[in-house]
Amino acid sequence: MEKYVTCESVFRGHPDKICDQIADAILDEYLLKDKNSRVAIECSVKDNLVFVFGEVTSKAHVNVEKVTKRVLRDIGYFDNFVVLTKVSAQSWDIAKGVDKDGAGDQGIMYGYATNETGEFLPLPYVIARDISKRIEAIRKEKYMDVLGVDGKCQVTVRYVDGKPKAIKAIVVSAQTKKGIKLDEVKRIIKEEVLIPLLGQTLDGIEILINPTGAFYRGGPYADSGLTGRKLMVDTYGGVAHHGGGAFSGKDCTKVDRSGAYYARFVAKSIVKAGLADRCEVAVSYSIGVANPISVSIDTFGTGKIGDEELLKLVNGHFDFSVKNIISELRLKDISYQRLAEYGHFGNDVYPWEYADGKANELKKAAAEASA
Q1: pLDDT digit string (tens) for 101-154?
Q2: What Å distances lie between residue 176 and 13, 17, 52, 71, 213, CA to CA?
Q3: Which residues contact 219 (CB under 8 A, 6 or more apart)?
Q4: What is the pLDDT of the chain when averaged over all its residues?
Q5: DSSP per-residue codes, 180-211
Q6: Distance from first CA to last CA of the chain, Å, rounded?
Q7: Residue 219 contacts residue 174 (beta carbons within 8 Å)
Q8: What are the pLDDT digits (tens) for 176-217?
Q9: Which helix (H) or strand (E) holds 298?
Q10: Kind of pairing between the strands at 82-88 and 49-57
Q11: Full strand arrangement of the beta sheet holding 49-57
């Protein structure tokens, strides 16, 4: 069976991604000064106006305006931004449940892994993300006078019987400086981004670069931005399910974040153990309750053992309680801003990507069960 899968990535200067990075940078500042901070920060941006709002309970004091402007400058925005804030303490109704090691919210989280790439992520997602990162890199290296900081990338891959076979199309919309000719932008992206990354000629691939022509006006001046509006970019490119909860600006007691990280940890461990080619783990929580309401596994017919048997193994080797997740993945010691740039999964510096130990446990347990 043949089908096409398309995934998207956005540049750091995309207005929604600006807001994610600001929210997580503020979270990082609170956690640096008080690891037990409860943080739920949102951000919106339009033109040179940034609005930071939410709930924080912490012993720390953070200069929100200073952090916000630091992030904007690091991305590449040097305008005189105005920062407005409206932050209150965490609701007591929520706090009393979290204080008992319960989940900081209710909801459904999903984790996913596939063996089609070294990152255990969908191939079109990885390619789109790598293109975006490479364009940012060459802009900083030598094309500051050519390329802007805003942009998007989209990649379509042809799959046959669940396996990626060929890249069908690549769409790149990259902001440029005024007066730059489109032919020059196309040359730079093809010769210095696409061909080096793909290691091949672009024959047979439909390449669309700035298909509307000029893309001079970008960032928050072209579109407003809001935290949590790039959920597929943050996760698996739309290949897997998503429970709807965003990550950025939330401390680890919020299971939107911690539950999703642990579900990824479990899914990757299963695939790395060779027990499935693809795996999606779903987990649901009730606010104020320590353990999940449900855990389920779907290997999409690629499992080496049945999904029910696999779930028994998972229940015997993983602890989905909120307290354990925070401890096992060291979530109070994480710096989160970097995750808000180009996705929360596939980077081995983060604990939920260290799947070797659990993968070996599962492989051994599965072998013993079948002996």
Answers
A1: 667 678 899 999 999 999 999 999 999 999 999 999 999 999 999 999 999 999
A2: 12, 18, 28, 21, 11
A3: 13, 14, 15, 18, 77, 148, 149, 150, 175
A4: 94
A5: --HHHHHHHHIIIIIHHHHTS--TT-EEEEST
A6: 35
A7: no
A8: 999 999 999 999 999 999 999 998 779 999 999 999 888 999
A9: strand 294-298
A10: parallel
A11: 82-88, 49-57, 38-46, 225-226
Q: What is the mean pLDDT of residues 339-359?
A: 96
Asked if 287 contacts 91 with a C-beta cutoff of 8 angstroms, the reply is no
Left (φ > 0), alpha (ψ -120 to 50) or beta: where does 201 sit?
beta
Which pLDDT score is estimated for 101? 64
**Angle between helices 356-370 and 307-317 in degrees, nearest 10:** 120
Write out the H or E segment, with its range, that includes residue 235.
Answer: none
* Angle, CA 26 vertex, CA 251 and CA 332 arms, to 5°: 35
Distances (CA, A) of 143 to 97, 151, 192, 216: 51, 15, 11, 15
Q: Which amino acid is at 26?
A: I
Q: Is 244 exposed, middle or buried (0-12, 13-18, 19+ CB in 10 A)?
A: exposed
Query: pLDDT tens digits for 4-42?
Result: 999 999 999 999 999 999 999 999 999 999 999 999 999
Tokens 């897997």 appear where? 240
CB atoms within 10 A of CB 242: 17
Q: What separation in angstroms does the CA of 213 have from each of 12, 173, 175, 249, 352? A: 21, 9, 10, 35, 41
pLDDT digits (tens, 9 = 90+) for 35-85: 999 999 999 999 999 999 999 999 999 999 999 999 999 999 999 999 999
Beta strands 147-160; 2-10: pairing state: antiparallel
Tell me which residue of 296, 293, 242 sits closest to 105, measured CA to CA.
293
